[in-house]
Amino acid sequence: MIKCHLSRLMGERKLKVIDVARATGLHRNTVSALYFERASRVDLAAIDVLCRYFECTVCELFEYQPEETPL
Predict the structure, then answer these.
(1) SS3 string of 9-20?
(2) Is the pTM of this model over 0.85?
């Protein structure tokens, strides 16, 4: 499973979804889907814009967490 840390990054800076959307030029629905971790696909250009805006790496924005498999 891929975990998105956009909500944490925004919380640290006290930003709202609309603030990030306006500042980056991304659609509000794109930012919202990432914020609430409902996005099933993300455009690489959107990831690039968010990393530049938050001055972070892709690894700081997203994290891979293996799902636990039942024994």
Answers:
(1) HHHHCCCCHHHH
(2) yes
